[in-house]
Amino acid sequence: MSRRRLVQIAASAALVASMPLAMHAAAQSIEDIKKRGTQRVGVLSELPPWGFVSDQGKNVGYDIDVAELIGKKLGVKVELVPMNVAARIAQLMTGKVDLLLATMGMYPDRAKVVQFSKPYAALSIIVAGKKSDNITKLEDLAGKKVGVTRAAAQDTAITQAAPKGATIQRFDDDAAVVQALLAGQSDVIGANTTYLMNIRKAMPDAPFEQKLVISRQYMGVAMRPGNKELNTRINQIIDEIKASGELNAISKKWINQDLPELVTELPGVPFTVQ
Fold first, then answer.
1. pLDDT tens, 92-122?
2. Where does the secretion signal sit in this chain (predicted)?
3. What are the strands, taking DSSP E only, across the chain?
């Protein structure tokens, strides 16, 4: 594991340890959420099709639709709280939101800080670059400038996989990463499979393609740890909307494909409160 990643984990652990007890428990229970009448959900606002702002100024996307379904099942209104990738866990752990539906990749280091639900979506972490570039294996990234979103799953995956000689460029959000590729500031980018979908939608003739698949990522609802009741109910809701076809409809609506098979376990990532 890289030194930078160890520092991130240590910082997250310090954040949890330093939190006042009252804040750590804020709106943890279903009863607390129902008494308030709203469920505060952290979402992204610059990553189509997962979470973004429509031409009408509304937060929309895959994650938002799932959040609305969860709110409906809990019988409460949903208050969407837009945030950037790097701030997600801090916003959750300091009680600013009750849940995160913000393309939260389910990884062991994150599972030490937050409680994940069962996965509700999946995608691939890839390297994207110019069609004309001969990149067929990880070693071909040596000497390349690789753009990633700071603290995102792509950052972790690329940092661990990139060969010696690759330069990792970190940007504050996904839009900046894509712009770096388009402008030639980055030779390639660490992305997920929906990046190219967005680029092609805006630029049908864009000369970019998937070069490498780094890993498979599963997304779960993130909660503060320790609340078995909330975790159990969220998992029940995910099972319900999978069985009803509602989750598949969301996948087809936003990604134009059926819901992929979702894993029932991930090493180092418990889906239930232990």
1. 999 999 999 999 999 999 999 999 999 999 9
2. 1-25
3. 38-44, 46-47, 51-53, 59-60, 77-83, 99-100, 115-130, 145-149, 167-171, 188-192, 208-223
Question: Can you give the pLDDT at residue 28?
Answer: 66
pLDDT band at 177 (very low <50, low <70, confident <90, very high): very high
Average pLDDT taken over every residue of the chain: 91
pTM above 0.85, yes or no: no
Look up residue 260 and give its DSSP letter.
Answer: P
Residues 6 or more apart whose Cβ sits within 8 Å of residue 110: 89, 104, 116, 222, 269
CB 145 within 8 A of CB 167: yes
Kindly report, as residue ranges, where domains of CATH 3.40.190.10 are found in the chain: 3-122+219-255, 123-216
Choose among 150, 162, 257: nearest CA to 212: 162
At the topology level, CATH places domain 123-216 in D-Maltodextrin-Binding Protein; domain 2 (3.40.190)
Cα 11–chain centre separation: 19
Q: Which residue has the higher pLDDT, 274 or 234?
A: 234
pLDDT in tens, 16-50: 444 443 344 444 689 999 999 999 999 999 899 99
Query: Are 42 and 102 contacting, i.e. CB atoms less than 8 angstroms apart?
Result: yes
∠ CA(50), CA(119), CA(234), 5° rounding?
95
Query: What is the per-residue DSSP string for 33-102?
Result: HHHHTEEEEEEESEETTTEEE-TTS-EESHHHHHHHHHHHHHTSEEEEEEE-GGGHHHHHHTTS-SEE-S
